[in-house]
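User: Structure please.
Assistant: Input sequence and predicted structure:
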Amino acid sequence: MNRRQFLLTTAAGALAGCTGGRGDPVTMLAVNEHDVSHTITAWVVRGERLRVAETVEVDSGAFERLAEMRPDDGSGDPYRVTVQVDGRVALAREFRPETWFNQLDVFVAEDGTVELNRGQAA
C-alpha cells in the first residue's frame, strides 16, 4: 500500500469535512508504514523560533498527530525540520515554502526510510 492509499484509508475520517485555506494551522502527522512501532521526535524551527518539539509513539501501520503549528507572518524564513526515529537522527531538512501548505508529515516507509512530505489538505 502506498502512502496516499494509506492516508486515504486511515485518515479519511479524521479529515472528513475539512476545508483548508491560507492562514489555517499546519498539521503534522507521524505516519508509520514500517512493520515495527517507532518513537518519533520532531523539531521544527522557523527563523530563530522553535515551532514544534514533540515525541509520539507510532504503532506499525498507524499514524499519530505530532503537532499543529499556528500560521506565522510568512516572513520567508526557512523551515528547519529535524526528525529522530528511536533516538537516532533520521532526517534533517531545510526548506523555504514556495507554495502554501497546511500539512507537514513525517513518514516511516515500509523499508524503514524516513521522508518529510508537505501538502495541502482540502
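The first strand starts at residue 26 and ends at 32.
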